[in-house]
TrEMBL record, chain B:
Coiled coil location: none
GO cellular component: plasma membrane
Keywords from the UniProt entry: Cell inner membrane, Cell membrane, Membrane, Transmembrane, Transmembrane helix
UniProt-annotated location(s): Cell inner membrane
Membrane topology: Multi-pass membrane protein
Segments passing through the bilayer: 12-40, 52-72, 92-115, 136-157, 177-199, 219-243, 249-268, 280-300, 312-333, 340-358, 364-393, 405-429
GO MF: transmembrane transporter activity
Protein name: C4-dicarboxylate ABC transporter permease
Domain TRAP C4-dicarboxylate transport system permease DctM subunit: 13-425
NCBIfam families: dctM
Matches recorded under InterPro entries: DctM, TRAP_DctM
Keyword NAD set for record: no
TrEMBL record, chain C:
Chief location category: membrane
Source organism, top-level taxon: Bacteria
Pfam family, one: DctQ
Domain named Tripartite ATP-independent periplasmic transporters DctQ component: residues: 31-159
MF (Gene Ontology): transmembrane transporter activity
Organism: Desulfovibrio psychrotolerans
Compartment(s) where it occurs, according to its Swiss-Prot or TrEMBL record: Cell inner membrane
GO BP annotations listed: C4-dicarboxylate transport
Membrane-spanning residues: 20-40, 52-71, 92-111, 131-157
Protein name: C4-dicarboxylate ABC transporter permease
Topology term for the membrane: Multi-pass membrane protein
Length: 311, 433, 166
């Protein structure tokens, strides 16, 4: 007999969280011989970003993709992935995120079944003027949401938060000088046209978790559960790789089409960034410790996993 | 029942409920959407959807621009701006055949330039212009028709709640949409004026000439409405040159309106309180429509009806122009029955991807469907704006109002035709930004 | 007896709507000032952090607290093209059904919003940018919906027991 599952996602269909959703649905259908049929709902048609977690827990969707950054305070352990660790690729960050989850099985997600985790590519600067040193950032208005805005503040920039759809116009009009997010928007939202100066800073990634309603998970036959579990680590890696390729394509396209300049912060600047953003890590440690988490052990795990996957 | 069938059936139930009972369209969509969702997805998911969506819609930063723009319009209204504006245009055009009707259209356009909603424009212009036209013996067909048609300009001439909502939903730039609506709005205004002149030629008794104002009176009338020009230039200029984002423009506009009216001595605490309370009423009405459309839209999405319709259209293998005409047809009929805002909210997710896939300019398409849907707002059997005007003029039966607006439909059709032939009408200004 | 009780309920609804509307009006004014302050501040290189988050929350209060007031002052436009063709009895029945369904919708919404607020508390969720406790705003929206539900229930009772038409 057939098992029908509803999988909700919040960003528009062409974005990477939805691309990985379609891939997962396809893979599951193949590996279960068509027993599991997943209906996908991209673009917030079923649940939007803010309602995703609750919606999956209450069964509005069977499966959903949550962005951890949308729920400050809810994920004391996994929010470690939002810190500036200097990941250079989505693949290494995604594999780290999944392994970290698999090892710690944190209590913060024990009301749902976690199917996989992945992250966006590292956040980089895209600006109308060259940013080669931290002095270039001083007082510069840069758009950044959530924790990214705290990072910007620490680096001396002026963080401006505004909804993403307003950003292209704000950059064009000079309300802001640039933005700090992963490079795929250069092509996907045509930022290359306005922001000719890109700087590789390898600032934080955005972690995502694919979660499933616990009751629904318990109702699945063992062989299906095994298919899902076997897919977890692989899906994390696939998504990271897809994201990295997508970013590279966007960057190549931007260079070719708009002749953008790509600069990479040198080691001295990176060391300075680490020094300036250290208080953010301390803040996380304090919050995690309060939630009864061995914060230092988690940080060590992240460092070790990063070292393994960044080779 | 198949979900798609449930979706289709719900459209019939919705339209039936709106036509038969005194249920406001937002309530109807909310109730039917929630019920339908519960049928397809189960009661538990429907309830958690309800809580989540009410919070999402009400706390949406993008939507806060709506009360701001309405507040801007209400501050102007209560400080007497549109009355003075009307007097000024009247002093210049009142003496010609149908002159007061022409003045009404121009004043509507001017008020539209600061007010985001055509219902609000219809309600306020009715109270200002209808008594005046009655005083000079204008035929009710012409006077109510003029106000109803003129009020629809509120949706095209920026700022416009409808264009804001399209922008929020599709990710298109709200500032560009505003600029895109400006020229077609002005064109419609001119076409309305021609329509009135033509009607008065055919039926001279409909719009007898009013008294001639002296040149001194004419020039003396101008400063009284200068605020509206200043305000429009500040808000649109600020948007055009990027002093603020579209969502901030509403707040800036409301604050500027308050400042200007206070400085010119037309504002008082009482008037401000009245402006705020009217703003709350009007924006609450719009928010309920938005809430209803979002909930009904959630239900439609889970029935997969929108996807089925989009696939059906894409599978027709017709020339793009024919598909555009087909879509225009759907919006015309939809606009006749439903509120423009609600209709657009529910249908844009269906048609926008189809049109983008055909490589049409999204700004142009947005403006086009806005014009077409707005035409529906004054088309019988069920034009919302016509109803507002009819309720402001209790002695005029609704069919006379519809007869009046009927004459203006030709102007609309001509405007749509021009938009189809010359897309630049909607795309030229935005391309200059 | 019926009249005096319903009259009392009606007056209570009007009073609640009025009080909530005053809060909504004050919040709307504050929002306007906050947005302007942020714009001016940004022009001088010092934008307020999290303005748009706060404005979103305040907008929720404005929208929810004006629901009952707008309903009380009959601001919602309906079409009802065929309504004049029905007898008074049928019209009353239709009105009663509309009021009852609408009341149920907003009362359910109030309950669910209260549930959402409880969920946020339970999860310890904070706001995205300012990282503040924000569930009271959700509860405020629940309160607004509750008031709206009450006003609609009164309208239903008036239709059924007093045979009052809209
Ligand atoms: Na307008
Ligand atoms: Na209509």
């Amino acid at each position: 007999s057939e098992i029908a599952l509803k999988y909700a996602n919040f960003p528009p269909a062409p974005t990477f969280p939805c691309v990985q959703m379609e891939r997962w649905a396809q893979e599951v259908a193949t590996r279960t011989g068509g027993v599991v049929q997943v209906t996908t709902y991209p673009g917030s048609t079923l649940l939007d970003a803010k309602n995703m977690l609750r919606g999956v827990m209450q069964g509005q969707a069977d499966i959903g993709c949550i962005s951890l950054a949308y729920h400050p305070g809810v994920f004391p352990l996994l929010s470690v992935m939002e810190l500036p660790h200097g990941f250079t690729s989505a693949e290494s960050a995604s594999r780290t995120a999944w392994d970290l989850y698999a090892k710690h099985q944190p209590a913060e997600l024990d009301k749902v079944k976690v199917l996989t985790m992945f992250t966006s590519a590292p956040s980089q600067f895209m600006a109308k003027k060259p940013i080669r040193t931290l002095a270039d950032l001083k007082g510069t208005e840069i758009r950044g949401a959530g924790l990214i805005s705290s990072v910007l503040e620490r680096l001396g920039a002026t963080p401006v938060s505004m909804p993403m759809p307003e950003v292209p116009e704000a950059v064009q009009k000079g309300i802001i000088q640039g933005l700090l997010t992963s490079f795929e928007v250069l092509k996907d939202m045509k930022f290359a046209e306005m922001c000719k100066y890109e700087t590789v800073a390898n600032l934080p990634v955005y972690p995502f978790a694919v979660i499933m309603n616990k009751k629904r998970w318990d109702s699945l036959p063992e062989d299906v559960k095994k298919v899902f579990d076997d897919l977890s680590a692989e899906q994390a890696q696939w998504t990271g790789q897809y994201m990295d390729t997508h970013v590279e394509t966007a960057l190549a396209w931007s260079k070719e089409t708009y002749n953008v300049e790509v600069y990479t912060f040198d080691d001295a600047v990176q060391a300075e960034i680490a020094r300036l953003t250290a208080p953010l890590i301390d803040e996380w440690i304090a919050a995690a410790a309060k939630a009864g988490i061995d914060a230092q052990a988690v940080l060590n795990d992240v460092a070790a996993l990063k070292a393994t996957y960044e080779q | 029942m198949e979900p798609v069938t449930a979706g289709l059936l719900s459209v019939v139930v919705l339209l039936g409920a709106i036509l038969i009972s005194r249920i406001p369209v937002g309530f109807a969509m909310a109730v039917i959407g929630l019920g339908g969702y519960a049928m397809v997805m189960g009661r538990g998911p429907a309830m958690s959807m309800l809580g989540g969506e009410v919070w999402s819609v009400f706390s949406s930063y993008g939507l806060t621009v709506i009360p701001f723009f309405i507040l801007m319009g209400q501050i102007c209204f209560h400080s007497g701006v549109n009355e003075r504006l009307y007097k000024a245009v009247y002093a210049w055009f009142g003496h010609i055949q149908g002159g007061i009707a022409i003045a009404t259209v121009l004043a509507c356009a001017g008020f539209s330039a600061i007010c985001g909603s055509n219902t609000a424009t219809a309600a306020t212009m009715s109270t200002v212009a209808l008594p005046e036209m009655r005083k000079y013996g204008y035929n009710a067909i012409l006077s109510t028709g003029t106000v109803a048609a003129g009020a629809t300009l509120g949706v095209l001439i920026p700022p416009s709640v409808v264009l804001i909502v399209i922008g929020l939903q599709t990710g298109e730039s709200i500032a560009k949409l505003f600029m895109g609506g400006l020229l077609p709005g002005m064109l419609l205004m001119c076409l309305f004026v021609f329509t009135i002149m033509f009607l008065c030629k055919r039926h001279p008794s409909w719009g007898p000439a009013g008294p001639t104002a002296t040149w001194r009176e004419r020039f003396a009338s101008l400063p009284g409405s200068a605020e509206i020009v200043v305000l429009f230039l500040l808000v649109m200029g600020g948007l055009f040159f990027g002093l603020f984002t579209p969502t901030e423009a509403g707040a800036a506009g409301a604050a500027l309106a308050l400042l200007i009216s206070a400085v010119s001595g037309h504002m008082s605490v009482r008037k401000f309180i009245n402006s705020v309370s009217d703003t709350l009423r009007i924006s609450s009405m719009i928010m309920v429509i938005l809430l209803g459309a979002v909930i009904y839209g959630k239900f439609l999405a889970v029935t997969h009806l929108p996807f089925a319709v989009a696939e059906w259209i894409a599978g027709l293998a017709l020339p793009p122009v024919v598909i555009i005409l087909l879509i225009c047809g759907i919006y015309t009929v939809g606009g006749m029955i439903m509120d423009a805002l609600a209709l657009l909210l529910v249908t844009i997710p269906i048609f926008f991807p189809v049109v983008e896939a055909m490589q049409y300019d999204p700004i142009w398409f947005s403006v086009l469907i806005t014009v077409v849907t707005t035409m529906g707002a004054i088309t019988p059997p069920v034009g919302v704006t016509a109803f507002v005007v009819a309720s402001a003029a209790p002695e005029v039966p609704i069919d006379r109002v519809f007869r009046g607006v009927g004459y203006f439909i030709a102007a609309y059709v001509f405007c749509v035709a021009l938009l189809l032939v010359f897309p630049g009408l909607a795309t030229w200004l935005p391309s200059m930004m | 007896m019926k009249h005096s009780l319903l009259g009392f309920m009606d007056r209570t609804g009007a009073r609640i709507s009025h009080v909530l509307a005053i809060f909504a009006g004050l919040t709307l004014t504050a929002m306007m000032l906050l947005a302007c302050w942020n714009m001016v501040g940004r022009a001088f290189g010092a934008p307020l952090k999290g303005t748009f988050e706060l404005i979103g929350f305040m907008g929720a209060v404005v929208a929810a607290f004006s629901l009952a007031y707008a309903q009380q002052s009959r601001s919602h436009i309906f079409v009802a093209f065929f309504i004049a063709r029905f007898s008074r009895r049928v019209r009353l029945a239709l009105d009663a059904a509309v009021h009852l369904a609408s009341a149920a919708f907003f009362l359910y919404a109030a309950v669910e919003l209260e549930g959402l607020a409880a969920f946020i508390v339970d999860m310890g969720e904070l706001s995205e940018t300012l990282q503040i406790v924000y569930y009271p705003f959700v509860q405020a929206v629940a309160l607004g919906c509750l008031a709206m539900g009450y006003v609609l229930v009164v309208a239903f009772c008036k239709t059924v027991f007093l045979a009052e038409e809209v």
